[in-house]
Write a structure and sequence with these properties.
globular, alpha+beta
Length: 101
């Protein structure tokens, strides 16, 4: 999982998760939110970093529906998904500053 606005470089909000191919996009969003303490709101997941509506993945889809078929536990298939989210804090310049990345 890569945070879409920073997909081309190292970023502390990129993460690796291992799930089954029957996991829904909603389930992946919950895993990501829980990993970061539940502070993310309105998370959306995309198949490409462009974040356009044609690469938006509906929460009800499974990874298999999206073309990720999995593999054995010791050697799972890898894939990259991109996410974006909004925070509850939109009026604080200090919290909205991403200049340190």
């Amino acid at each position: 999982m890569k945070l879409a606005p920073f997909w081309g470089r190292s970023h502390p909000l990129h993460l690796t998760v291992t799930v089954t191919s029957l996991t829904t996009i909603y389930g992946i969003a919950r895993v990501v939110c829980e990993h970061f303490g539940g502070v993310m709101r309105n998370m959306v997941i995309f198949s490409e970093p462009s974040c356009s509506s044609d690469v938006y993945l509906k929460p009800s889809l499974t990874l298999e529906d999206c073309g990720f078929y999995g593999g054995p536990l010791k050697k799972p298939e890898t894939g990259t998904l991109y996410y974006n989210y909004s925070t509850e804090f939109t009026d604080c310049p200090l919290l909205m500053n991403d200049g340190y990345f």
